[in-house]
Design goal:
The complex is a heterodimer of chains A (198) and B (357). Chain A is α/β, with parallel strands linked by helices and 198 residues long. Chain A is built from seven helices and six strands, in the order αααβββαβαβααβ. The chains are: A alpha/beta (198), B alpha+beta (357).
């Protein structure tokens, strides 16, 4: 269950206790309460949040997810889904940094894409998304959605944004409902993840 | 012996107009505390304030600021020439520079038609008093026609620049004072950038304070090109600059249908970032993947162009100012405009020109 996400030894005991509570919610198959509790639990964490995102992505089907260590300025992205041909750079914004995915997150996701294509740390191509994952989706007046379209039109890149709640929903579907997640919709994601899916 | 004009009693108006037959042919701007005016008859006098009607050292004209670079861009329309607002117009006529506010950028110097603002021994600029009564008549009341004629005659004169040395002290004073005043003046950075660019012949507008919709710091134009720009003179987010300029390019192309090959992205910074900062590599990545060659101006370069009265055009932009992982030395670019800069500038080779070694 969720406890297995806590492979990072630095996670505080209080969080582990909360994860136990989340386990119960997961057992009861109450997705909304589960998401709500998880959001509350991880609201004040940064490194744990990054680790958690990595583990959720693994759980829903991405086999090799690497979280970039702090201070690694050469490898610009916060995390990367590593694949033979379709690696995905990921920009993560913890709720302690910003509550909402914002313009800065999208700019960084664009830069991640450019850097990965240029330096070829991991194989990818121009069609594959660059993800910005944060605690909440931006509001419609933030300018984020316009910028996503500007980037697509100018550079041809897909920048996808997924919030914590939707990721938790995917985790719930995968772990509790044993449903297969449609990863293809993430590989080529542009804009907001389709919340109806979760 | 030269006799200095003394402004009339403080409550009375004064201005200087050129006498008939006194034709200035060259204004020499000097970093040695004295600008001079050469007249057609061969005489040369020290420059000073003539109390112009429109005070070009104090404010830009509306046609220089209220231009249409990009439709709908909410721009800062403050017309002040001095970024730190150190130039004060005096009630009785003339201007003065408030010493404690002068950042020593030199922007006002090139705006004065009569060589009236000079670098002084305190390391800042000051307004000089005109010498030689033979060339001028002192008015006691405003005479628009005579004053405009004097302005025109000064504008017809050529300009030359004599700079003996740009000391490290001068450059340090400029930076330190700029940083000090930037704490209390929100638009100091943007106005400094705008005015430097205007003085070197690049029309531009800076973002209005509080504008978050169209996020350029400035948008400039030269020839058939648009120059979206970002500056980072005070903060530490140098690595944010490439991301911000990518955003600007996307907005210009996507929302305004500006062709990609008409866009010259420009970054302005104070000091070159450290070699290991990744800044240079990212600019190379951007070129490799998007095809955009991001240009970079250190503010010291703008300071020099302004000081030496150099103008740039679109050809200059197309051929120069590339900084990336293969090129981090601005000395070569600077030499193309100021050939002996290496000997003039004590700062040559420092982080004003390249990354700290």
């Amino acid at each position: 269950m969720l406890k297995k996400l806590t492979h990072n030894n630095h996670i505080a005991e209080k969080v582990v206790t909360n994860l136990d509570r989340l386990d119960v919610l997961l057992e009861n198959r109450n997705m909304e309460e589960f998401k709500h509790a998880a959001r509350r639990t991880f609201h004040d964490y940064t490194i744990e949040f990054y680790e958690l995102i990595g583990d959720i992505l693994k759980t829903i089907g991405f086999v090799n997810v690497k979280i970039t260590r702090e201070g690694d300025t050469n490898n610009r992205m916060d995390a990367v889904i590593i694949e033979a041909k379709r690696s995905i750079p990921i920009e993560i914004k913890s709720p302690r940094e910003v509550e909402y995915i914002n313009i800065k997150s999208v700019r960084q996701a664009l830069e991640n894409k450019i850097v990965l294509l240029s330096r070829a740390f991991y194989p990818t191509d121009g069609e594959i998304t660059s993800l910005a994952i944060g605690f909440q989706y931006p509001n419609t007046r933030s300018g984020v959605f316009e910028l996503l379209d500007d980037i697509k039109k100018t550079y041809g890149f897909n920048i996808g944004i997924i919030d914590f709640s939707d990721l938790l929903g995917l985790y719930y579907k995968s772990e509790k409902l044993a449903e297969e997640i449609d990863l293809e919709s993430i590989y080529y994601l542009h804009g907001k993840y389709n919340a109806k899916e979760v | 012996m030269l006799k200095k004009f003394k402004p009339l009693k403080p409550e009375k108006y004064w201005a200087l107009v050129l006498n008939e037959g006194a034709t200035p042919v060259e204004i020499n701007y000097s970093s040695s505390f004295l600008n001079t005016i050469l007249f057609e008859n061969g005489s040369r006098i020290g420059g000073g304030c003539i109390n112009c009607l429109d005070k070009p050292c104090w404010q830009y004209n509306s046609h220089e600021i209220d231009i249409n670079v990009l439709s709908g861009f909410p721009y800062n329309n403050d017309r002040r020439v001095c970024p730190s607002d150190a130039i004060q117009v005096l009630e009785e006529g003339g201007v003065e520079i408030v010493a404690g506010k002068c950042i020593s950028c030199g922007i006002c110097v090139q705006r004065c038609p009569s060589g009236g603002i000079k670098y002084n021994s305190e390391g800042i600029f000051a307004v000089g008093v005109m010498e030689n009564t033979d060339m001028f008549t002192q008015l006691k009341a405003q005479d628009s026609e005579l004053q405009q004629k004097t302005m025109s005659r000064f504008k017809n004169a050529s300009e030359s620049v004599s700079v003996a040395k740009i000391s490290r002290v001068w450059a340090k004073y400029f930076r330190d004072k700029f940083i000090e005043i930037s704490h209390t003046q929100a638009d100091l950075e943007h106005v400094l950038v705008r005015n430097f660019l205007l003085n070197i012949g690049i029309s531009n507008q800076i973002s209005a304070i509080g504008n978050i919709d169209i996020r350029f710091d400035f948008i400039a134009t030269t020839g058939d090109f648009l120059i979206p720009g970002e500056s980072e003179l005070v903060g530490n987010d140098i690595l944010g600059l490439p991301r911000r300029i990518l955003d600007d390019i996307a907005v210009l192309h996507s929302r305004y249908n500006i062709p990609k090959d008409s866009i010259i992205p420009l970054l302005i910074l104070f000091l070159f970032p450290r070699k290991r900062s990744d800044f240079y590599e990212v600019l190379t990545d951007i070129r490799e993947i998007t095809g955009f060659e991001v240009k970079v101006f250190p503010i010291h370069f703008l300071f020099l162009l302004n000081l030496f009265n150099v103008s740039l055009d679109s050809e200059d932009f197309l051929e120069n100012f590339i900084i990336n992982k293969d090129t981090q030395d601005y000395g070569e670019y600077t030499k193309r405009y100021i050939s002996d800069i290496e000997t003039i500038d004590d700062n040559y080779g420092t982080e004003l020109y390249t990354f700290e070694k």
